[in-house]
Structure formats: structure tokens, C-alpha cells
Amino acid sequence: MPATLFSDRLAETARSVEACLDGLLAANPAPGEIARPARLREAMRYALLGGGKRLRPALTREVARLFGRGDEGVTRAGAAIECLHGYSLVHDDLPAMDDDDLRRGRPTVHKAFDEATAILAGDALQTLAFDILADPATDADATIRAELVLGLARASGLGGMAGGQMLDLEAERAAPGEDGILVLQAMKTGALIRFSCEAGAILGGADAEARARIRRYGEIVGLAFQLADDLLDVTATPEAMGKATAKDAGRGKATLVSLYGIAATRARLDALVAEAEALLAPFGPAAATLADAARFVALRQS
């Protein structure tokens, strides 16, 4: 893709979040901890510091910036979301789930270490996410911290990402229709992306109307991300993706791409970008980077 304002900000976020995560996963125990086992910490660092676009924390930072906030607390919140996302990838790759050997062009955590270590690394990354959000270093206001913790829990648990993964497993046995696929994708992928946007609004002190716009924007970006992902699973090479492709077709799993076709999926992505731009219009030029973000997600090639 050509360079855009968002792609520049994405690179900036990646550097900031990498540095933050590096510090959070240092060898010395945090207050209240007893010790940090070296192999577990190494597996967590392998899972989190091995690349990735850092899209979710970038969305958090850009929304917070829209509402006038850009301090280290925003970076920490993005790092927490990345910990939660990292945990989901580690567990998704396990033999009991998607059984993947490659992630971002490298062996998955259970291949680089072992299954038990991968399970524990995912568990520890999940709890670290909530540790970061609950820490006053993220925000001095306990009400904001509680709202962030609650929002991430709802986005990632039974009614969000974990529930979506359950629906995804069930879809291998009985393919859902369009409505079922939309619910599955909104939970498994969309919920965490939506919360990434809403977290920026929480941190930035946005009012109820602005938060509702940002929440809907996040839902649109989440759906666009999954549509683009399903499209790439059909059209991209494993080398370009850094992981196996054509997995859904191989398992007989229905996706929106399999229902709509490639051309209609691309048209749907264009419509989602237009809807995102319309939602952001009341914010004026200050939201240009977020409009770029929607286009970036919809047109990505990896």
C-alpha cells in the first residue's frame, strides 16, 4: 500500500508499544509478584515482540488523539490490548484450536517451545493485560481504569472473543448462514477492534454521542478487517501472509467471501469505508487519520 498518514502513525505506534511491552516483560518482578520464570517470560516475549502491525493499539492512540490525549497512559492501554490479542493468537494456534505451525513467518509458540508453555504464556498474557489497565500508571482516575477493565473483559470473554472462537469451532461442523457468520466475526475479531477504538474515547473523555460514533466506527473497522482477512485467505500466498492460507476452504468453513464472492466482497469493503468516513465527518479534519485507518484495513495485502 502507498504510505498514508495512518501507516506512518502505525509505525510510530509499533515502536512505542514495542518499547512499552519490552519494559513490562522485563526480568525483575513487579510489586506483588514473587518471581518471573525465565522460560515462561521468554515465551511471552516471543509471542508479543515478534512483529505484528500493532493495529489495535494504533486505533486506541488515534482515537485518544482525536479527543486531545496522547500521553504514556494511552500507550500502556494499547499495550494491554496487544497482550490480550497476543494471548488469543497463542491459544488460537494450538493443536486443539486452529493447529497452525506458522505465525508472522515464524514457528508458533507451541512449536518454538511446547504446548504446555504456550498455554501458560497465553494465560499470563491475558492476566497481564488486565494488570496494565488496573495500574494507576495507565490513568490516575480509578473510574476510567475500571471502565477500561470492564470493556476489555466484555470484548474478550464469553460474549466477545472467546465466545466467537467457540462459534468458529462449531462452524466447522455445521456451516452457519450469513447472519450467523456476521455474529461469529463480530465476536471473534470485531469485539476487540471495537474496544480498541472505544478505549481511546474513554481515555480521551469523549461524550456519549462521540463515543457512540466511535463505537460504531470500531464495529465497521472490525468487520472490514475480517472481510479483508477472509479475502486474503483466498487470494494471498502463504509467503505474503506469513502463515498458512486457504484454511477455511480446506475445513469446509463458510465465510462471507464464500457467500458473496470476491468481487462483491470488495464492493462491501468499499461501502464499509464510506460508512466509516460518514461517521467521522462531524469530527472534521482531526479525524482524517482514522478515515485513513479504515481504508488501510480494507485494502491491506497482508
UniProtKB/TrEMBL annotation:
<keyword id="KW-0479">Metal-binding</keyword>
<keyword id="KW-0414">Isoprene biosynthesis</keyword>
<keyword id="KW-0460">Magnesium</keyword>
<protein>
    <submittedName>
        <fullName>Farnesyl diphosphate synthase</fullName>
        <ecNumber>2.5.1.1</ecNumber>
        <ecNumber>2.5.1.10</ecNumber>
    </submittedName>
</protein>
<dbReference type="GO" id="GO:0004161">
    <property type="term" value="F:dimethylallyltranstransferase activity"/>
</dbReference>
<dbReference type="GO" id="GO:0004337">
    <property type="term" value="F:(2E,6E)-farnesyl diphosphate synthase activity"/>
</dbReference>
<dbReference type="Pfam" id="PF00348">
    <property type="entry name" value="polyprenyl_synt"/>
</dbReference>
<comment type="similarity">
    <text>Belongs to the FPP/GGPP synthase family.</text>
</comment>
<dbReference type="InterPro" id="IPR000092">
    <property type="entry name" value="Polyprenyl_synt"/>
</dbReference>
<keyword id="KW-0808">Transferase</keyword>
<dbReference type="InterPro" id="IPR033749">
    <property type="entry name" value="Polyprenyl_synt_CS"/>
</dbReference>
<dbReference type="InterPro" id="IPR008949">
    <property type="entry name" value="Isoprenoid_synthase_dom_sf"/>
</dbReference>
<dbReference type="InterPro" id="IPR053378">
    <property type="entry name" value="Prenyl_diphosphate_synthase"/>
</dbReference>
